[in-house]
Amino acid sequence: MIEIILKKDVTNLGYKDDIVKVANGYALNYLIPQGFATMATPSAKKMHAENLRQRAHKEEKIRTDAEALAGKLNEISLKIVAKASENGKIFGSVGNIQVAEALAAAGLEIDRRDIELEPVKVLGAHEATVKCYKDIKATVKFEVVAEEENKEEA
Predict the structure, then answer these.
(1) Is the N end or the C end of the chain the one with fewer CB atoms within 10 Å?
(2) CA angle 64, 19, 17 (to 5 degrees)
(3) What's the rounded Cα separation, in Å, for the pair 36 and 14?
(4) Tens digit of pLDDT for each residue in 54-97?
(5) DSSP for 57-111?
(6) pLDDT tens for residues 62-74?
(7) 37 with 102: CB under 8 angstroms?
């Protein structure tokens, strides 16, 4: 048996940065050549521990920033204007791109790929889920209103 440090998640073995014992052949013939692992020498273990410590410090800051962003997003309420028929059905749909644009107009830059919602096809109040960080999510409330027809007489 040989000790290795995983560089990537390996199914039925462990997650990235785990130190595990595996058979010599499995480590030397598959995991290490494929780039899934490195040998767990004493110096590699020290470096690994230091990297984990530094990453934990950085991750704590990222997590607090994400929680603050989630708090802002939970409180915000947006209005999105869309062309609609008289019976309240939208021409086309309102998706994550329109929600991202409305958030940008409100001063919050959120990547559209982090916004999850079903395409909205009717006017009214709706919600979208925004992924701020790994397990931190926020709910954004928005209202879809009909675009006013400006019929000016000349």
Answers:
(1) C
(2) 30
(3) 11
(4) 888 888 888 999 999 999 999 999 999 999 988 889 999 999 99
(5) HHHHHHHHHHHHHHHHHHH-EEEEEE-B-TTSEEEEEE-HHHHHHHHHHTT----
(6) 899 999 999 999 9
(7) no
